[in-house]
Design a protein that fits this description.
InterPro entries: Metallo-B-lactamas, RibonucZ/Hydroxyglut_hydro, UPF0173_UPF0282_UlaG_hydrolase
Structural class: alpha/beta
Protein name: L-ascorbate metabolism protein UlaG, beta-lactamase superfamily
Pfam family, one: Lactamase_B_2
Number of helices: 6
CATH class: Alpha Beta
CATH architecture: 4-Layer Sandwich
Number of strands: 14
Shape: globular
Length: about 230
């Protein structure tokens, strides 16, 4: 599958002819200053939780592209209030079928609130099953044994995990998460954007390699095959 990384936890996956975008936070991110947010293609946008560093550009991209935007029920209501009519609710435990395949929403251990401090609903992750392959985006999360349930339902080709530590899992926990969900290929996200989540790239790569896992840390704006 083709994966494009836009910095922080924002990435897109091209599957079954559809561009599926996750957690759009680009314009405030100095590390992503060379990304043209108005050129981003999206048929679907998934929002893992309500924190600003995961939803900042969703209105702009959704209105540019007409993408269907999915998030928990509280985010769904927020989207409608902000003029995004092509919104769709999904909560942990639920699943829906779309033209690209199936998405199941799963739990993430993380807080969630909007910029004004209002409740943002429960934080989520997503498991996508498609004819081109299957993957799991954990969203911002701590390591949790709930992850071991995922491979009981879906055989994954890769996973997307936060590895910056401090606010989410770090490298050590992401390695354990990889074992729980049964993957050997991992796209690392949620690192370097802020001073308190800057990490040692070389050590992270070495740690994953020593665990017989392949970690991908693509350059912001680049597209890779996983």
């Amino acid at each position: 599958m083709k994966v494009t990384y836009y910095g922080h936890s924002c990435f897109s996956v091209y599957v079954n002819g559809k561009h599926i975008l996750f957690d759009p936070f680009i314009t405030p991110n100095e590390l992503a200053k060379d990304v043209d947010v108005d050129a981003i293609k999206a048929d679907y946008i998934f929002i893992s939780h309500a924190h600003y560093d995961h939803i900042q550009d969703v209105e702009r991209i959704a209105k540019n592209t007409g993408a269907k935007v999915l998030g928990n029920f509280e985010i769904y209501g927020w989207l409608l209030k902000n003029g995004i009519e092509n919104a769709h609710p999904i909560n942990p435990g639920g699943k829906f079928d779309f033209d690209f395949g199936r998405v199941k929403c799963v739990i993430a251990q993380h807080p969630s609130s909007f910029m004004d401090g209002s409740y943002g609903g429960i934080a989520c992750g997503f498991v996508l099953t498609t004819a081109d392959g299957n993957f799991y985006y954990s969203g911002d999360t701590a390591l949790t044994l709930d992850m071991q349930i995922i491979p009981k339902f879906t055989k994954l080709d890769f996973a997307v995990f936060p590895i910056g530590d401090g606010l989410t899992m770090g490298v050590e926990e992401a390695i354990e998460a990889s074992k729980l969900v049964g993957v050997t290929k991992i796209l690392g996200v949620h690192y370097d954007t802020f001073g308190f989540i800057v990490m040692d790239h070389e050590k992270a790569m070495t740690d994953f390699t020593n665990a017989n896992l392949q970690l991908y840390l693509p350059k912001i704006g680049s597209t890779i095959e996983i």
